[in-house]
Amino acid sequence: MTRSGRLVVLLVILSGLVAAPAEAAPSRVAWSKCYGGPFQCGTVQVPLDYAAPNGPTISIALTRLPAADPAHRIGSLFLNPGGPGGSGVDFVHFAGPDLFTKAVRDRYDLVGFDPRGVLRSTGLRCFGTPKQWAPYFTDFAWPTNGDQVQQWIAADKFLADACAQRAGKVVSHMSTANVARDMDWLRAAVGDASLNYYGVSYGTYLGVTYANLFPSRVGALVVDGNLDPIAWSTGTGNGTTVPFSTRLFSNLGAQATLDEFFRLCDAGACAFGPDSANRYAALVDELEAHRVEVTLPDGSTALFDWTQLVGFTLGAMYDSLGWEDFAQFLADVEAHASAKTLGRDYARLRFRPAYMPKRGDHGYPNFLEPFPAVACEDSINPSSYGAWVSAGNSAAGYFGPVWTWISSICAVWPFQDAGRYLGPFDHRTANPVLVVGNLFDPATRYAGAQKVASLLPGSRLLTLHGWGHTSLFLSGCIDDAIAAYFLSHQLPPAGTVCQQDHVPFS
Predict the structure, then answer these.
(1) What is the pLDDT of residues 154-190, one digit of tens each?
(2) Domains in the chain and their CATH numbers?
(3) How far apart are the first and last CA of the chain?
(4) How many CB atoms neighbour CB 298 within 10 A?
């Protein structure tokens, strides 16, 4: 789950209406080679509004990595990398060849799609060029005083007003439920009778929503790094008073992960040890008192404050395979170093997301717009910024404010989606769902996986004793269990706990 922006932090989350069955039928995908190598691309037209299935349509862009052993092909395996607003096309192109085991890649076409409103699909575009984004960014990761709150609100309104003026019709039809309906349309378009799916982070909410809208069409479905779907959508009676991003308690998962970073750092070969927790606290206090000047790769300088440090720390917690480098980064900041490594890492905090252009795309990467369109239209939230101030002040740990303020634009987002789905999330599916949770996940805490497993009848919880966001690329044990499930619907034994392959600082 990510929010684009504020210069520092790129965080890499009414009635349960179900639309009537569409009268129109999806056409099969016309695949053609793209990007070089084995990749193929295509587009599918889907209804803009599933309540009016014969009305206007929008385009969904897909790519696939065909099964390496087509003679033994099982079917298509749809992927979603999270966000909301992540590109499934990019996910398949960049990560597809390394995902899963060879046996899974041999027998499944890996299919990614850009959700409605995102990149190559019919896009939500509120600007003409990324240069117009500048007023959205601030030089702090979240507001810490009244003046900064007003700057933050002005930035939210800048984006919301731009969308109110320029967004097309797709903006009011971007809820996760409509993406799930698209995914069922795409399932039919590739010729599969049931949906096989792997979703990570926010992609788990998409998977759980699909499982509850179309329970009879669930094939093999894996959700990895789970959002609590009730907290995301309605809350437990507190939806109108507490922002959805606070209700998820991601701050607790992030703090637990940071505590593990300190523990492992002090126990191993670590540039920021010993006594790393106290040194980090002292560093936060120092940067709260005065900012540190750092040198960037181009030779210019920038000031680094404590909110930026905490925001960057949250990003570092996502990937424990980089914790050794992050420890060196902290040591450099502590020493007021302006070494190239510090400048390079600081530069990563600037908004420079990768974008892979595609033939026929007009070239505007709409990284800002999809998050509020999906997240705010999915969820019930307060309507006053006072709720964000209160929640940010009371949320525990270093990461309470940053996880709270990520959703503040929902206070002024001017659109709603009548097709959103607010539950229930406890339908029995045709096949059991495999739920994967990482014990120390800084974004989708382990309790989210426990909640999803408790809601979906017959599902199985698979636990990773590891550190970072989701289980991706962390554990051969997890990979093998997921492969067994995709290849034969074999669930791991109840209570299975896998270990991370690499222990940081060991």
Answers:
(1) 999 999 999 999 999 999 999 999 999 999 999 999 9
(2) 1-237+353-386+408-506 (3.40.50.1820), 250-347 (no CATH)
(3) 29
(4) 7
